[in-house]
Specification:
Bound molecules: zinc ion
Number of domains: 1
Strand order of the largest sheet: 2-1-6
CATH class: Alpha Beta
Oligomer: single chain
Number of strands: 6
Helix content: 25-40%
Mean pLDDT: 96
Shape: elongated
Structural class: alpha+beta
CATH topology: hypothetical protein PF0899 fold
CATH architecture: 2-Layer Sandwich
Radius of gyration: 17 Å
Distance between the termini: 31 Å
């Protein structure tokens, strides 16, 4: 499961952050998940809930922010919602979108004590 290995690397990041901050507990982990990142939101949430067990983030609240895909057509310069990377431009029909938003998969914030 793709999401689980991502969750494990997020826990690595959280671990390092908590250690540097001298924290004893992680309260909250905020993660941004783009629509075009290839990660399924529900699966990601489930993977995170499993991955934090027995770690310093055991009791942490997992907050996932979903970012909708947005593209800009490189031919007609119009911006539009992009559900997948191969969608054509709805204005001129060309297959030349530049992704403006939606590929994100990152830790946005870690709240520790
Ligand atoms: Zn276009």
């Amino acid at each position: 499961m793709h999401e689980f290995s991502i969750a494990l690397s997020i826990i690595d990041i959280v671990d390092q952050y908590a250690e540097k901050a001298g924290a004893s507990v992680v309260n909250e982990i905020e993660i941004e998940v783009g629509e075009l990142s290839g990660v399924v939101l529900d699966a990601m949430e489930f993977a995170m809930e499993s991955a934090i067990k027995g770690t310093i983030a055991d009791k942490a609240v997992i907050v996932l922010h979903f970012l909708q895909g947005r593209g800009q057509c490189l031919d007609c310069k119009m911006e539009f919602d992009l559900q997948n990377l191969f969608d054509p431009c709805p204005f001129c029909g060309s297959f030349n979108p530049e992704v403006k938003q939606g590929k994100e998969l990152r830790v946005k914030a870690i709240n520790v004590d």
